[in-house]
Amino acid sequence: MMAPITAASACAFHTVKLPSQNYTTKEGIKRGTNLGQGHGLGVKRAFCGGLQIKANARNYNDDAKISRVASISSSRQNFTIRSYEVDANGAASVETLMNYFQSSMIDHGKTLGIHNNNLNGSTNEMIKRNLVWVYSEMQLFTYRYPKWDDIVEVETWLSSEGKNALRLNWSVRDFKTNQVLNRASSVCVLMNKLTRKLFKMPEEVRREFESHIVNFRMIIEGEDKKIPKVDDTTADYICTGLTSIPQSILLNYELSAMSLKFKRECKIDSKLQSLAEVCSDDNNSKNNVEYNHMLRSEDGVEILRGRTQWRPKPTNNFDNFNHVPEASIKDF
Question: Where would you tag: which of 19, 20, 180, 203 has the fewest CB atoms within 10 A of its CB?
Answer without folding.
Answer: 20
